[in-house]
Amino acid sequence: MFSKRSIRSQFLLQLIIASAVLLLLFSSVLYMLIKQNVYDEKQRDMLQIAKNISTYQSLSMAIHSSSDAMFNVSLDIVNVNSKKSRVESIFEYKKGNSYYLVVLYPFEQLENTYIEVTKEITQTKKLLNKILSSIFIINAIGFIIIIIYAIAFSKMLVSPIRAINRRLSNMNEHLIRPLDVNELPDEFKELGKTINHLLGRIQNFVKYQKELFIGAAHELKTPLAVIKLKNQVVMIKRREAGEYIAAIKQTNESVDEMNKIVSDILNIGREEGAQLELPVCSDVMMLLKRKADDFALLAKSQNIEFMHNLNPASYSATIQPKLLNQILQNFLQNALKFTNANGKIEFNSWLDGADLVIEVVDEGCGIDESEDLFAPFKRFGNKSGVGLGLFLAKSAADALGADIALRNRDDSIGGTVASLRLHAKMYCSR
Which terminus of the chain is less hemmed in, N or C, by CB atoms within 10 Å? Predict the structure, then answer.
C-alpha cells in the first residue's frame, strides 16, 4: 500500500498512472493510424474500380486496369432513390462472421443509379485484431519495464538521504563529524551545508555543556573546601563568641557564592525554556528604549554617563523577546560593571542594509580576544562574577539566529564593544 507521506511512493504512483495513460493513448493512436491506412488503401482500390467501370463502361476494362484489387470483390448496379446530390459513399457491415466494405459510386449513364463495389475484409479485420493484441502486449511489457526502472530510479534518488541518515545515526556526542558536501549530488549540497551548520552548533553545545558541568563542579568544590577547612579550624579549640560569629559570616559568604553559581546555572535552564517559545513579531526598538531608560538610571546612581542613540524609530522582527532581553541585559550589566565612575557608556543601534546592529561600548578593562570569550566560567578583569553571562548571551543569540561579537575598542580610550546583529530575514511587517 502506498503511503501518502512517502515522496518515493507518491513518485511511483504518479509515474505508474502517467505511464499507463500514455501507453493507452499511444496504443490507441497507433492502432487507429494502422487501421486508417489499411482502410484507406482498400477504399482507394475500390473507388478506382468503380471509376474505371464508370469511365470505360466496361467491366473487363476495369478488371484489366486493376486486376490485383479485384480479389474478393463483387460488383453490382443498384438504384438509390435519394434527393441528395450524387456523391460516392463508403460503409462497412457484418454478415454472419464475415465483414464487408462497400463503396457506392454514381453511375453517370443512369439517374439514381450507383455502382456497388463490395469487398470482403474478414481477414483484414483479423489481421488488425492481431496487430492490436500485439501492440498491447508490447506496451504491457514496456509498462513492466518502466515500473522496474522507476523503482530503481526512485531508490537511487533517495539513496543520498539514506546515506546521510546512516551517517547521522552512527554519530553520538563523542563522535560528531561534518558531512563531506562534495560527495553529495548538487541537489543535496545545500541540505548537507545546513546539516553541517547544525552539527557545528551541536558540537559547540556539547562542548560548552561539558565545560559548564566541569566548571560548576570546580566552582562549587572550592567554597565547599573553604567552608570545611574553616569549620575544622574553628573546632580545634574553644573560642570566643565573636570568633564563632566571624567564622559563620565567612561561611555564609561562601554559601552566597555557591548560591550565585546555582542561580546562574538555573538561568541557563530558563533560557533553554525561552528558546522553545514561539517567535512573535515584536518592535525591537521599543525594547531597546525601555532598556536605555532603565540603565540610564542605574548608570546615574554610579556616577557614570549613559548615552544612547537608537535608530531607526521602529524595527519589527520575528524573535523571542526574552532571549533578546537576556543578551541586552548581559551587555549593559557588563558595561556598568567594568566602567569606573566618571566613565561613559554608549548604547547605539542603526540599520546596516536591512540588518539591525545593536552595540554597547564601555570604558572598561577590555578583553583578551585570543580567548574563547563565550565559554562558561570565563572571567575577565578583577570584578566578581561566575562567568556565565556571555555563555548565556551566545546561546540566546544562536537561538535567535543572530550574530554576537566582542572586540576591544580601537581608540585611545580603551574598553570593550559588544555587538548584536539581527538579520534581515527576521524582519516582519506589522
Answer: N
